[in-house]
Amino acid sequence: MMSKLYPIGIQNFESLRNDGYMYVDKTALIYKLVKTGRYYFLSRPRRFGKSLLISTLEAYFQGKKELFEGLAMEQLEKDWTKHPILHLDLNARKYDSEEALLQELNKHLEDWEQEYDSPYSDRAPEERFYRVIRKAFEKTGQQVVILVDEYDKPMLQAIGNDALQEAYRNTLKAFYGVMKSMDGYIKFALLTGVTKFGKVSVFSDLNNLRDISMRSQFVDICGISEQELHDNLEVELHELADARGMTYEGVCSKLKEYYDGYHFAPGSIGIYNPFSILNTFASMEFDSYWFETGTPTYLVELLKKHRYNLERIMHEETSADVLNSIDSASTNPIPVIYQSGYLTIKGYDERFGIYSLGFPNREVEEGFVKFLLPFYANTDAVESSFEIQKFVREIESGDYDSFFHRLQSFFSDTPYELIRDLELHYQNVLFIVFKLVGFYVKAEYHTSAGRIDLVLQTDKFIYVMEFKLDGTAEEALLQIEEKQYARPFEHDSRQLFKIGVNFSAETRNIEKWVVE
Predict the structure, then answer these.
(1) DSSP secondary-structure letter at 185?
(2) What does DSSP say about strands 451-457 and 461-469: parallel, antiparallel, or unpaired?
(3) pTM for this structure?
(4) CB atoms closer than 10 angstroms to residue 419
(5) Cβ atoms of 132 and 112 closer than 8 Å
């Protein structure tokens, strides 16, 4: 019997508390946030609880003490002063024209102007914002709280459209910049989003923001920690184990493998994706919940635009300057992918200030690679999962000829624009295929200039493969012998296949394979 109401899709704190939904208490951290600073910025992946955080802050600054009964905040806060709140939510709109952003800002400004008697609706958005802040302060006698949810939604939707990017940047830069000159009128401000557009972008006039995205003391202000999982869902962990026919230890291990692993600061605790965790307990099933809500295609467009070698994504290294900020032209795909939640911090070299990145968990790794497949290979999104299933079955049954014929179909009709990067294209397709196959069989994959070596292992078979570009399949097979790739398996009882494969630049496909 399900013992809790899980707030899936519920982002309003007041509704959540009044209707008896489960709430993981973040109010001690929220209290720390509001008492130790004034201007904040927080980036977190989508579906990670940013909107609920904003809503919780809104209820707190509205003085709604009754909503915090039984939470840490009830004991911490003594004053419960009510402040005027300007809550700007940019999430619920499609931004495909310059007017779209202006209309959204105008919608909020009109509401605020009516509430605080600010008769300046004929001015530019940034001047109207300035006047509203002053009028709200004058009318209530209290400093203003400014909460911005998904501040970067217009910028993200305009990636690839330089003219629209510039228009949005200029509008938002002036609008957000108003806050810097109004210290005396502002009590608190928090801007949240998926990414941080920095440098000469929207924050250049608002350089007094404290970015807590990678600060260790606030890593768990969104999401669910290991401790919070057990504090809030211990009974349900046992129920999930019973429902899935698993042990308690097995369920905890699988939850960790699939949904944990987000690290937002060097050496910090791992954070579970809250959306996936809540859905798992609500349905009593493991699934790719975060990916079912949609992955933005601009990520793939960035990878392809910058001719990114996908194998690098497994062991990417970068600096804090890169991770903390992307420019509006998005000249580097990695910070966008990191800030969007598809990569996380795996290690940190303090001496050189270098971060090692990787996929946070199985859900993200498998979902992201599966999402990439139709953009690189000759298959569609619906068929790709079935194709991988067939690959795995062919490998498990020893049917290598069917396997390579299927692989050939993935390379057929290679788009003309990829011909100039043919080696990268064939390496990327093979990486995606073998990465997906590797979720079901044991796989080791390595690349170097013009060649790939690969080992696949199943219960009955071992495949040692060498791929060459514009060589011969026989040369590839000889390389297996010369490099002694099969030596670790000489005394293995499983059947061993050594396979040399050649990829032809002329046909843009696998030309031949030979097996020993």
Answers:
(1) G
(2) antiparallel
(3) 0.90
(4) 11
(5) yes
